[in-house]
Each structure stands twice: as structure tokens, then as C-alpha cells.
Amino acid sequence: MSNQKIQKPTLTGQRFKTRKRDEKKVFDPTQFQETIVQGLNQTGSDLDAVAKFLDASGAKLDYRRYAETLFDILVAGGMLAPGGTLSDDLTRTEFCLFTAQEDLETMQAYAQVFNKLIRRYKYLEKGFEEEIKKLLLFLKGFTESERNKLAMLTGILLANGNISASILNSLYNENLVKEGVSAAFAVKLFKSWIHEKDINSVAGSLRKVGMDNRLLELFPANKRSCEHFSKYFTDAGLKELSDFARNQQAIGSRKELQKDLQEQMERGDAFKDIIASAREEMKKNNISEQTMIGIVWTSVMSYVEWNKKEELVTEQAIKHLKQYSPLLKAFTSQGASEILLLVKMQEYCYDNIHFMNSFQKIVVLLYKADVLSEEAILKWYTEAHVAKGRSVFLEQMKKFVEWLKNAEEESESEEDEAAD
Fold first, then answer.
1. CATH number of the structural domain spanning residue 157
2. Which of 215, 329, 338, 351 is 20 to 30 A from residue 209's alpha carbon, by CA?
3. Is the pTM of this model over 0.85?
């Protein structure tokens, strides 16, 4: 055996230099800011020149990395510190949104600058929305004039679909709401939005992001009423927004009422208690009997799971409605309420195909239960019916209507004889 020491194997290899493109860049917006500020100072207040400068600079500068810095400069003239104040130690420009003229035409021109920039560099879309959200949270740090300009710009951008209405969530910040900043900002914003489009555009966008029922939250809790909202925005020249909010509030109240009615029925509450509770809500929320009978009908029909077989569902419906006829009767004291109930029944039987052959039998049941009068049925038959399933339901009702007419004529004849 050899006494020579055996060397242990070692790992050897070549060290590779890190590629330049793989090196992590240090976040340093200072140089970026200086370049943008210098360009804006050269273009001045010529917004067409500004748009061309931003378009060309995107090929040389890292917009993706410094999006927040870019938007801060375009809006406020320099980088913003937390709270909305300008950073003192950095370069800034006097040519920005906040130093521009405070009028709609100028704000429309600025909206075009942002629109062109984001259309050219699509990746800036998300960063721009985040910037607007941040700016709204910083509102207290801006002057009234700066807030007004930002509000007008935001309204125009919303009208043109450049940003989502979800950015308005920032306005529900507790401090902004408490100090009245949110409501004042909203006035300017909605005015410019409606000026660009209309109230339907506002309503559609708010519904899309589930904010159509949250407008009252622009006010602190002690002022969060439909009456206060309506007066505030009507006085500010936004009656159509007031009407929209009032309508949304009414829809919300009706949905809540329907939910309460169904819960009461599920618990098996006495009809007198359900009726008393519903009438209290009618008074409280200014709900008409016509609206209430629609809510009651929907609640009664939603409360049960219906048989899928057409031959069985009619029998089930008759039994169910016979039980709940006192509830329906309580809210059909007016002829208009009876007509509306008949229309609701017609639409329901048409929309739920298994009920197509049940309509006439339901009408007869409610007639016998004194929920529907012959006058209401005859008026529905001759003029008040709607288009849904009209030919089918009129044909179903033909014999019963003839019977009603004959009964009415016989009654009149007997009255004449008695008078003689």
C-alpha cells in the first residue's frame, strides 16, 4: 500500500459576470424628474407641444418605473410628499395642471394630454388610476383652486372612460368626509362629468362598480340623509344627481322591505303584524300602495320553491295564494293597485313558463277572495294589460270576462227593476 496522501476532489468552475441587464437598478427618480421638468419648461403652456414631448420621451425614459413621478409632475409640478405637499429639495416646473387656468376648456385640454399619453403607453393605465386615487386622498393638502381643477379633470376623465369610477372610493375617506372636502369636490366632479356626457353615463359607471347606492356616504353620519343630499346638490345645480340618488335610495329601501317581508313569512308571523310593519315602512319611506303591492306580490311568490311540472304548479300556486290573499287584499284598496297587481301577475306568469296556463285560475281565485274587483279585471282586459304574453292571457280570460260582463248587466237589470 502506498503511503502517498490522496488529494480530495474539489469543485472548480468559471465565474460569470452578471449581465448588465440583470443588475437591479436603484430607484432614483431625481434624474428622471429633472429631464421631465426641463422638457415641460421648454414646451411651456403649449399643451400640443407637451403631448409631443411626452410621446417622444417615452422611448428614452423609463415611464414604467417612474410612472408616479411622471404623473406627480404633470399634475402638481414636482414630486409629492405624503399629504400632498411638494418635496422642497427637488426640481419643479410652473407648467402643470395646478398652475393652469381654472376653467373647463383648459381641463379638457389637459385631459387630452393624459389620454394621448396613456393611449401611446398602455402600461401606464393602472399607474394613472393609482395616481388619481392617491391625489384624492391628498385633497386636504391642496388649495381650493387646485382641488377644483383636479375635480374637473377627474370628471372629464370619468366621462371619457379613461379611468374607472372605482377611484371615487378615495372620497369616502373619513377625514375628507368629516371636513366637507369630499362633498365639495364631488360637486365640481359631477358637474364636469355630466357636462361631458349625461346623468345616464354617471349612473351606468357607478352601477358598474357597485357605488350607485353609496353617494350619501359623501356626508358625515349626522348629515347622511336623502333630504340633505338632495338639498346640497340641488342648490349646487345638480338636481339630476339628487333625483338619481333619491331613486337609488328608494330602490334600496324597497329591496330591504322585500327581504323583511320574506323573513316575516318564513317565520310564520301573523298577517296583522306583517301588514302593520309594511304600512309603517310605507309611511316612513313614502312608498305608495301601488309600489307596495308590487313588493308584496314579489315577496309572496319568491317565498316558496315552485314545482317544475306545469300540471302541478297551478294547484300549488292556488293553494299558496289562497293562504296569502289577506296580505294581498290589505294593499289593493285602490283601483290603480289592483291594475298594477294584475300587470305584475301577467309579467310573472309570462317570465316563469310553468305558470303560462295558471294566469286565469289565479285571477279567478283573487276575484273570489275580494283582492281583485270586476272593474279592475275588465279594465286590465280592455286597455291596461302589457305586451308580455298578451294574446295567450287574453284568450285565457275571454270566458271569465264574458261572465263578468253578463253578471254586471244582470245586476244592472235587477237594479232597474227594483227601482221601478
1. 1.25.40
2. 351
3. no
Question: Letter for the amino acid at 125?
Answer: E
In the predicted structure, residue 77 carries a pLDDT above the cut 80: yes
- Which of 238, 261, 277 marks a domain boundary? 238
Are residues 134 and 220 part of one domain? yes
> Tell me: the pLDDT tens digits for 167-216?
999 999 999 999 999 999 999 999 999 999 999 999 999 999 999 889 99
Q: Which three cell numbers stand for residue 30?
A: 431625481
- Count CA atoms closer than 13 A to 331's CA, side-chain side: 28
The three grid cell numbers given for residue 89, joined into one nine-digit string? 429639495
Q: What is the Cα–Cα distance from 408 to 400, expressed in whole angstroms?
A: 12
Q: Both ends of the chain: CA-CA distance in Å?
A: 149
Q: Determine contact, residues 245/183, Cβ cutoff 8 Å.
A: no
Q: How many residues does the structure list for the chain?
A: 420
Each residue's pLDDT tens digit, 97-146: 999 999 999 999 999 999 999 999 999 999 999 999 999 999 999 999 99
CA torsion angle 73 78 82 84 (round to 10): -80
The CA R_g of the chain, rounded to the nearest whole Å, is 34
Q: Which long-range contacts (CB under 8 A, 24 or more apart) does 275-284 make?
A: 275/327, 275/330, 278/330, 278/331, 281/253, 281/257
Residue 71 near residue 32, CB atoms below 8 Å: no
